[in-house]
């Protein structure tokens, strides 16, 4: 016979889900800033008279700083407690958003974006760490499903929200509100986070060992890896030598962590990668985000520059993907424990079909109504995406010990950021490499989608590996 639920149990249950809601709101805010700026770039250029290099750093500086901080921040949360690190990250992100919105020149905005990215990287790993700490079994899968919904929805809705803000406040100053929109969210979330998130206790903290050599090696390796990927305007072929350097530094990092793990708690424990679900899920995440994020990058460029869409209408054209992804992510989190990686494989196949249909729609209906023609294919791709992101997140982190949940979440998020940077670099090079006249936009976009589908299919192979 089932035990009756006590008032205390009910209060704890409600508090856990409210704590999750605070985490998801903060996570949404930080991940939104990865995509919302894309449609604001023309407004930023008009408002601050920015150079091409400056605009590139507004985009890439955030991603670079975000990716640099993720793993050390996750480890910091594991060691000293997730709530103080979360609160610090949320306060800093809110403050740096205000700093970015108030920018008076190019250097000011670039520095603010770097600080904003570091603040977001400090906060995000704590979210997956709290889910590991607060939930078990099917509830954990549901919670990760909601996190997947947040990730997918924030990435996809960014262009639409950016377009709405610029339409409301004008092309000259509208870009400022792309950053200011974070202020009320952060100011409301801070007191709720302080009240609802569990305080650190000895059993929820790992040993306070920060592995400074590991932090340094991983930081240098991450910067060397991401810098040539996120700097599209840097045309010197020697930049690719940095990739070779990153491999050497990251190899040194792996050797150091193995040596250090025999003595103390390292930044990233090698045992994480002995768990097949974590290794396979991280690979799927890297490959899928290489395609997933790049879709919005080239689609908004195609619509705005090739078809003359405004920022608002370009954002609206992506809405079917965003809405379908949000719905499917919630469903995926509920059924992933029943279907496992087969659900992820089905989702990846569905994404590939949807994107292929989108390429066909552009080929057949390349005109002012192409946004309508791609609506149904993007809806299909969005449904598939929802069955990839949240189930993969749940399965990847499911077997990770709670004491290492922050660092594991940081590794997974870093894989996503590296995938996003590599995808945008590869797909963007394909897109711009086939643009010679305005008539080339449809063909360039279709070729870009072919590259994206290639990444998705590689993720499918990784998901199907026994």
Short synopsis of the structure:
This protein is an all-alpha fold and 466 residues long.
String of helices and strands = HHHHHHHHHHHHHHHHH
Low-confidence stretches: 1-8
Distance between the termini: 39 Å
* Rg on CA atoms, Å: 21 Å
Helical stretch tally: 17
Percent in helix: over 70%
For the record, the CATH architecture stands as Up-down Bundle
The portion of residues forming beta strands comes to under 5%
CATH class: Mainly Alpha
Q: Let me know the average pLDDT.
A: 85
Q: Which structural class fits the helix and strand makeup?
A: mainly alpha
Can you characterise this structure?
- It is globular and about 60 Å long.
- Residues 1-8 have low confidence and may be disordered.
- α1 packs antiparallel against α8, α9 packs parallel to α16 and α12 (311-339) crosses α15 (375-397).
- It is 80% helix and 0% strand.
- By secondary structure, it is mostly helical.
- The chain starts with 6 loop residues before the first helix and ends with a helix.
- The protein has 17 helices and no strands.
- The chain has one domain (13-464): MFS general substrate transporter like domains (Growth Hormone, Chain: A, Up-down Bundle).
